[in-house]
Design a protein that fits this description.
3 strands; 8% strand
């Protein structure tokens, strides 16, 4: 295999013209011009050099690669991540895995809940369970736009649910039980009272809840 940086065109000339002085001179000139272009060869491997491209070029490349839910307003790092993922995502369109991965890139961890896993679910329907912060209207609009691109067309979204783990730091319950009574004894009856024992039953319920208004 030839090393492009050591390439000499005259070494590849056919024997019928290899000894012609004019052809050899021309080959030397062409070789020099080719060597001048060598620093630009690496740029042909676009995906491995995205960090070196300007933001306008990234936007044009995203159009060229048909990154469906590309947004010029997002951060540069996110643009690069979307471009790198676009080819693989096109191969997996319509799958649960892609829905979860694509929304996760923009928002947070996401899980698709199939219709048979919740009450009232109808065939070809599903829900999204989010574990991140509450979405702003702008983020929600972008999430729904991404969803429309990556889900299969026969499936319908029933709703978005937010699932949060509540860390209350512990629940402490305390109480006190008392028993009181009175006995009146006339002196003439000579009634003696000893310690009284009885069973005391205590019950309770502790509820920890959080309201999220959507």
């Amino acid at each position: 295999m030839n090393d492009l940086y050591k390439f000499k065109l005259k070494d590849t000339l056919p024997s019928s013209i290899a000894n012609d002085a004019n052809v050899q001179a021309l080959a030397e000139v062409v070789t020099l011009r080719l060597m001048a272009l060598m620093p630009f060869v690496d740029r042909l491997t676009i995906l491995s050099h995205l960090n070196e491209l300007s933001t306008p070029i990234l936007d044009e490349l995203a159009w060229h690669l048909h990154v469906d839910f590309y947004d010029e307003a997002v951060a540069r790092e996110q643009k690069i991540k979307l471009i790198l993922s676009s080819i693989a995502w096109h191969r997996r369109k319509g799958t649960v895995g892609l829905v979860e991965e694509a929304i996760g890139e923009l928002y947070s961890d996401c899980e698709v809940v199939e219709n048979w896993d919740y009450d009232g679910g109808k065939p070809y329907h599903f829900k999204l369970q989010m574990s991140g912060y509450m979405m702003t209207p702008n983020i929600r609009e972008r999430v729904l736009r991404i969803l429309e691109f990556v889900k299969n067309k026969r499936s319908w979204l029933d709703g978005i649910e937010y699932v949060h783990a509540i860390n209350s730091g512990g629940v402490y319950v305390g109480g006190i039980a008392t028993a009181a009574g009175s006995a009146v004894a006339e002196p003439s009856l000579k009634i003696a009272t000893g310690p009284q024992t009885q069973q005391i039953y205590i019950g309770g319920i502790v509820t920890v809840h959080q309201f999220i208004h959507i």
